[in-house]
Amino acid sequence: xxxxxxxxxxxxxxxxxxxxxxxxxxxxxxxxxxxxxxxxxxxxxxxxxxxxxxxxxxxxxxxxxxxxxxxxxxxxxxxxxxxxxxxxxxxxxxxxxxxxxxxxxxxxxxxxxxxxxxx
Length: 119
Fold this sequence. Notes:
Blueprint: H1 12-28, H2 39-58, H3 63-89, H4 95-118
């Protein structure tokens, strides 16, 4: 039996988004200090945007508004994926960390598209 989702914290997609945020913060702690206001800050903001927009959209009264926030999630995922590739190219993160994080982001994207289609 499917349980009714009562809060955004119950959504697997939001939970996975929080996981990505934690991963990004851990990885970016190791970035060079000169990147603090550059790539580090940008990656953290992109990552935080994912679960934040899922939560904000969930609390909207209309599905049309919710969908708009979910489209922002897709954009933030693409932005973060690009930044991860850049970080890898600059040797700030290794190939394994890059692959792991990108797979999580792609999973969130797939879930987001499914949710948009359900709405």
